[in-house]
Amino acid sequence: MSKRLFTASRVVPAAPEEIFALLADPARHAEIDGSGTLQRLIAGQGSMKLGSEFRIAMKANGIPYRVTNKVVEYEENRLIAWSHFVKNRWRYELEPVEGGTRVTESADYRDLRFPRLTMLLIKEELIEDSIATTLDNLVKRFSS
Q1: DSSP string, 13-74
Q2: What angle (nearest 5°) sits at the alpha carbon of residue 61, between those of residues 59 and 66?
Q3: How far apart are CA 109 and CA 132, in angstroms?
Q4: pLDDT attached to residue 125
Q5: What's the mean pLDDT in 62-71?
Q6: Cα–Cα distance for residue pair 95/55, rounded to 1 Å
Q7: For the whole model, what pTM was predicted?
Q8: Looking at the DSSP assignment, which residues form a beta bridge with residue 108?
Q9: CA 142, CA 100: separation in Å to the nearest integer?
């Protein structure tokens, strides 16, 4: 994989506060997950803050696993990001715009703990599709 930072944006027809409430509550992540890997929250319910941890049951390529994420960036109603032991980072940035909120999702693989192994296991198109689907799901979630 040559690319290590993946990002896309959509305008979501909702206020930043509404969107942030969903993003900051890991129990609600399944509502928008575009990767198909998120199974369920195991621990860490409620609104996350900087330093909060949550544990998720995942499944990829038929293989179940669990991962503990830690909130590593946080600015209420504006920015939230989490990372786990491999050190890839998922980030959501919210910006009020006409018609709602521009939500930018990023998957950042630039500071990996195991770069060679991780990059062998991950396909760029899957990350890009996952981000696009998650953002589309977010738009649909707030359009109804």
Answers
A1: SS-HHHHHHHHT-GGGGGGT--SS-EEEEEE--S---TT-EEEEEEEETTEEEEEEEEEEEE
A2: 25
A3: 17
A4: 62
A5: 86
A6: 28
A7: 0.85
A8: 5, 89
A9: 10
